[in-house]
């Protein structure tokens, strides 16, 4: 019996479908879509693919995404293709008052760098392989923004998106620094740390590297599209094999119901206090990273323990308040 698809797999499939339909300048046939979106390629037969695709179309439309079915060529109306109407998809101009801008200013500390480089890049590579004319600007707004203080992040993310090799100096735990040459596949955040997974050309094997251990600049080497990314690579498994599991410091957080969903999803346990609040128990490796995330939710997430985490959150809130007060002082 086939494994039941997880919610995460369904979300990634829908995201890749949206990326594919935004990336093209002309409507895509069902055959092209089936080749571009990985779960569709794994459908056992045409009937299974049709059922999956029809369900996904309905779901996108229910979400308000303007999915259109129209002729590929106006002279041959019997061949239907699919696209997303970019004019209807784009958000209108947004306007914020002073209080809203203050909240957004605090939130922007936690949402500044692009993520999802792996899924987005994979969908785009498949469309390029099908010789689909790209419209890259249309997919820029899809990628959520996540804060990272890692200096290497931007260069690594760009390398993943363009399939360019990179070289950098790396200091592995308990070892001396050494030059590494890598064909990066994905950039991933796991338990508060950022990693790049890829093929280490010096060791002729897949490897994973923690960005915080990269010393100095990351240099892009060679031309874009210089290598292929294997469909079956497993970044999580690479990290598990490479990193020794630390002693996680538990944190207990009080989370307002319906808020702080990224924290709730990672929680080991979730308890209900009352109609307004939940109590969650969450693992973390870096108190600074978790403090930044807690601050981004404002009054919707409160730290019960440990004291170290609560102190870091309070320090960030005081700093934000003092900075805002200084800016408004006469």
UniProtKB/TrEMBL annotation:
WCX domain segment(s): 251-320
Domain of life according to the entry: Bacteria
Signal peptide: none
Alphabetized Pfam families for the sequence: WCX, WYL
PROSITE patterns, per database record: WYL (PS52050)
WYL domain: residues covered: 152-216
InterPro entries associated with the record: CBASS_pafABC_assoc_protein, WCX_dom, WYL_dom
Name of the protein in question: Transcriptional regulator
Naturally occurring in which organism (per UniProt): Dermacoccus nishinomiyaensis
């Amino acid at each position: 019996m086939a494994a039941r698809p997880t919610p995460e797999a369904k979300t990634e499939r829908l995201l890749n479908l949206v990326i594919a339909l935004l990336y093209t300048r002309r409507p895509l046939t069902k055959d092209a879509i089936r080749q571009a979106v990985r779960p569709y390629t794994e459908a056992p037969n045409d009937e299974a693919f049709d059922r999956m695709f029809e369900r996904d179309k309905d779901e996108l439309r229910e979400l308000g995404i303007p999915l259109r079915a129209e002729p590929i060529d106006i002279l041959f109306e019997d061949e239907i293709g699919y696209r997303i109407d970019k004019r209807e998809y784009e958000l209108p101009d947004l306007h914020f008052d002073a209080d809203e801008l203050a909240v957004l200013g605090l939130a922007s500390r936690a949402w500044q760098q692009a993520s999802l480089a792996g899924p987005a890049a994979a969908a785009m590579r498949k469309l390029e392989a099908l010789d689909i004319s790209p419209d890259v600007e249309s997919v820029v707004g899809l990628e959520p923004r996540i804060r990272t203080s890692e200096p290497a992040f931007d260069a690594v993310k760009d390398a993943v998106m363009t399939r360019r090799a990179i070289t950098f100096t790396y200091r592995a735990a308990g070892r001396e620094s050494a030059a590494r040459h890598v064909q990066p596949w994905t950039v991933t955040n796991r338990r508060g740390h950022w990693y790049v997974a890829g093929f280490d050309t010096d060791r002729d094997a897949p490897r994973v590297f923690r960005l915080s251990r990269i010393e100095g600049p990351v240099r892009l080497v060679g031309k874009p599209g210089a290598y292929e990314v294997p469909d079956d690579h497993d970044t999580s498994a690479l990290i598990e094999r490479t990193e020794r599991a630390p002693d996680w410091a538990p944190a207990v957080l009080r989370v307002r119901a319906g808020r702080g969903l990224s924290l709730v999803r990672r929680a080991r346990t979730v308890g209900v206090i009352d109609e307004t609040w939940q109590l969650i128990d969450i693992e973390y490796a870096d108190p600074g990273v978790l403090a930044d995330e807690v601050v981004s939710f404002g009054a919707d997430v409160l730290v019960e323990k440990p004291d170290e985490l609560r102190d870091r959150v309070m320090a960030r809130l005081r700093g934000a308040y003092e900075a805002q007060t200084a800016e408004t002082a006469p």
